[in-house]
Known about the structure:
Blueprint: H1 18-31, H2 54-61, E1 66-69, H3 74-91, E2 106-110, H4 116-121, E3 133-140, E4 143-149, H5 153-168, E5 177-180, E6 186-190, H6 221-231, E7 236-238, H7 251-264, E8 270-274, H8 279-282, H9 294-310, E9 316-319, H10 336-347, E10 353-357, H11 369-377, E11 388-393, E12 417-422, H12 438-446, H13 458-462, E13 477-481, H14 497-508, H15 514-525, H16 530-551, H17 583-586, E14 592-593, H18 610-616, H19 627-630, E15 633-634, H20 645-668, H21 676-708, H22 723-728
Parallel strand pairs: 1-2, 2-4, 6-7, 6-13, 7-8, 8-9, 9-10, 10-11, 11-12, 12-13
Antiparallel strand pairs: 3-4, 3-5, 14-15
Helix pairs in contact: 1-2, 3-5, 9-10, 12-15, 14-15, 15-16, 16-20, 20-21
Amino acid sequence: MKGIGGPGAARARKGFDWRRAVAGICLLAAALGCGAAQAEDGYELWLRYRPIEAARADGYRAFATQLLAGAATPTQAATREELQRGLRGLLGAAPPLAERVTRDGALVVGTPASSPTIAGLRLDTEGLGREGYLIRSVVVDGRKATVVAANDDAGALYGAFHFLRLLQTRQPLDRLDLREVPRLKLRVLNHWDNLDRHVERGYAGESIWDWHKLPDWRDPRYVDYARANASIGINGTVLNNVNSNALILTPMYLEKVKALADVFRPYGIRVYLSARFSAPREIGGLGTADPLDPRVRAWWKAKADEIYRHVPDFGGFLVKANSEGQPGPQDYGRSHADGANMLADAVAPHGGVVMWRAFVYSHETPDDRAKQAYAEFVPLDGRFRPNVMVQVKNGAIDFQPREPFHPLFGAMPKTPLMMEFQITKEYLGFATHLVYLGPLFEETLRADTKAKGEGSTVARVIDGSLHADTLQDPLTGMAGVANIGADRNWSGSHFDQANWYAYGRLAWNPDASSKAIAEDWVRMTFSNDPRFVAPAVGMMVASREAVVDYMTPLGLHHLMGRGHHYGPGPWVDGGPRADWTSVYYHRATREGIGFDRSASGSNAVAQYAPAVAAEFGDIARVPEPFLLWFHHVPWDHRMRSGRTLWHELVHRYTRGVDEVKKMRAAWDGLAPYVDAERHRQVAAFLAIQEKEAQWWRDASLAYWQSLNGRALPPGYAPPPKPLRYYQSLEFPYAPGNG
Ligand code: GCV
């Protein structure tokens, strides 16, 4: 591809030369100092649309000399408005609107129905569905043009955002031939937001949903939320916490839900609700919520009808049932399938779906917690209605810094499985630690379940292609537990915005590269200067491994403070449930450490396909990052590095802290390329991260030493404080607690 300043760039135009005028305005702006990096608070996310540097802007203007985009529907209007806003910001002025291509360099956006120009081009839009799009360099009536074409307004909206991204990331525009179709149908955010605006596991302030003022006050921020989501292809949002309150289903709240749905609709975003299974009792006046009771079924059907009267395109229900104390069908001796199917029948006439979570475990079940979801759900394979998806967390425990993929992936060939990732960093340093989750998401999606031989990746399970023989045209989807709150920068920190962004891009294409996504995000959010881009992306890509090292190296897991999950707590023991303690998971003794999930232990490995089970179950073959997840290992066990396990653990904890030090130094060097306001906050948060990484290392090592009685290998600094100091720390007001 050629650069952006192609032959069209320098072509003189007849009449008023708006490009020249714009260039003049930009020069004036630069002279007035507007070109300098100005303080930014992060509100604009990756949709900043800052002026393209003068040397390149003319080249880009040559590809937006006119804008042909309808506004006959709310989605078309939103698309056109976004293009005008984006091009105005990037190029200094929005191109004039036109009905026909009369100049070289027109930008034509729409569908064959909305645009006669697009209809006339007879592009091959087959297979694009409702949401796919093409971006092509074409010739219209002898004039060069760029067309963003789709079958439906939603696809054109996504294409418009993609076109803007090409400019934002400084891509060439002169020979475009892009074709994009989302691989997953439902790309959904899960807000764990309560009606009192507390966000469970939220680290970005209170909920953005101002329930009290809704429906009359619709905060303009809701539109920006919708724009940001649409820009990365997110097409659904579950408004309330899975630990749900039945009040959300009452008429007063449905009015509020309707108000939000009306704001989001033009951006292709459907609203869903977390349903409390016991709602028929709590707000319905029934004495039971038994899913097989005809009165209960009738109540849910009537409730669904009522919801659809408010929100005709309501997406459906998300349900957490019989998990962590939530009500569910098992309270009545019924199965998860009975519960899910009852709700599915209620929403089916309206085209709704049910996302039924597989995050179930009970401390009354004596078996390894990691095995319980599989044990409950695999026998139900094939027993769910077609409009039910079983929503499965990426790993079998709970969003740890590293987990092997959940054994349910690949094990339910007759049931659509939906991925659930956690974007908010409950176990990864809350908002202050810079941890880019793209590599974590990518690692799970690329993991090979081997359910049908090599190449049976998790991505192929969730996109439906792996089980195409047993599931025809299934629902497909991905859910991300949102990290969005009322904080001005949305996510609690500037770099946490990248996790929202990466989630959306990977939900669109689960095979995308997390590194390439990071690069796009860095360019859009901060700067295209290569002196900034490469080091910033480098920090992001390294950050996930760093947090694994300083929190839970080599397959350790669930070692954080009790309840709030802030900071190290490997000593956590006792309390109401063994499976909410750390000692349950690490099983460290004087002799060794780790959870034996091999055949000699809980045999959780047997839940994986035989080839994977053989690998995970063999201490000589298990990938070292999962060693202590699957095996109880003597401290003197020889690692592939030649170190003993104890030495390797000390090495990795220390390496994690060192990596954060490197991240800090790298960020310090990036000050010239970032506005001072954002630079200062990231630097301050990195300082917190370094302090807390050190704390994780020191507290963990002090605790392991108290069990194994070993000194640190030579050259490693001992923990500066005694174990009792770390154990004495308490954080009753740590944010996000449930
Ligand atoms: C919404 C973990 C979290 C809980 C969360 C639960 C879930 O246990 O700590 O806050 O509850 O997962 O995913 O349902």
